[in-house]
Write a structure and sequence with these properties.
The protein is mainly alpha-helical. The chain is 45% helix and 5% strand.
Length: 287
């Protein structure tokens, strides 16, 4: 028993020494090292903001606003699809937005997707079909970079999952193009900050200089449901649509979570009552 206890204590001691030794350099630098200098653009950085009233899918009781998702799809098709793909979304998935199968088939046919000519075996473009996935607007990254000032537009399928606070990030980015604050600009320019030719200032982007020019303007598109197409409205709609493309089962997951919680509460109560029943007649032994 004594040898076993000594071995345990020795192991704990060695572990403590190794942990302390690994943390010592970081702790020393944190306490005595010079503070890291923030980049010049940091003075402009802003956290993503939520649209007024938030999103319908926010919170544990959130639900999809299907009219908004359809408006968001309209923004994607008429504005975003020229440069950005949705490679993980199939046309058939649009039925989840409230479209009928006939509408989805007709919508798919408006896109050209890569195919093979059955007579010659050559690569061709053909009308999209119900089971096809959304096509990439460029044949390869070289063509994408050549058409976009050497910047490759990212695929948007999972964008709201790839960015922190993704839904609010997309909304803020799309509606956040502005001119730099003059006072902040003066401070940043002292550290060498500039917005190069061909880039656009946006305080919600990673380094605030974005290759994508502003895309949304009031009344840029016409919504079928008559909603006014303000910049903020379109930004909110496309953010909601891209939240759906990234996590189409979000609402089902939340609803399932409530059933799981209810079951766990029931099972806990049942276990407690079983415990009371089994040990009801047992008395603790006296020491």
């Amino acid at each position: 028993m004594t040898i076993r206890l000594a071995g345990i204590l020795a192991g704990l001691g060695i572990t403590a020494v190794l942990v302390f030794w690994s943390l010592l350099p970081g702790a020393y630098n944190l306490a005595f090292g010079p503070p890291a200098e923030k980049p010049a653009y940091y003075v402009f950085k802003e956290k993503p903001k939520a649209p007024e009233g938030g999103f319908s899918f926010d919170g544990p009781m959130g639900k999809w606003d299907y009219a908004q998702l359809q408006r968001g799809y309209a923004v994607y098709k008429q504005v975003c699809s020229a440069c950005h793909g949705l490679k993980f979304v199939a046309f058939r998935n649009l039925e989840d937005l409230g479209y009928s199968e006939a509408q989805v088939r007709a919508e798919a046919a408006t896109y050209n997707v890569p195919g093979i000519d059955p007579n010659t075996g050559e690569a061709v473009l053909r009308p999209g079909e119900y089971t096809d996935y959304f096509p990439d607007p460029y044949p390869n990254n070289v063509a994408a970079a050549a058409a976009n000032n050497n910047a490759i537009p990212p695929d948007l399928s999972l964008m709201t999952k790839a960015r922190n606070d993704g839904s609010n990030y997309v909304y803020s980015l799309m509606s956040g193009y502005t001119d730099p604050d003059p006072e902040k600009l003066a401070i940043a320019q002292e550290k060498g900050f500039e917005t190069p030719v061909g880039l656009y200032f946006n305080p919600y982007f990673a380094n605030v200089n974005l290759a994508m020019p502003p895309q949304l303007y009031p009344n840029l598109i016409t919504y079928d449901d008559g909603t006014e197409a303000t910049t903020e409205q379109m930004a909110q709609d496309i953010a909601a649509f891209l939240t759906w493309t990234a996590e189409p089962k979000m609402i089902q997951r939340k609803q399932t979570g409530w059933f799981v919680i209810a079951f766990l509460i029931f099972a806990t109560g049942l276990a407690y009552l079983s415990y009371k029943q089994i040990w009801a007649g047992k008395k603790p032994k006296k020491k």
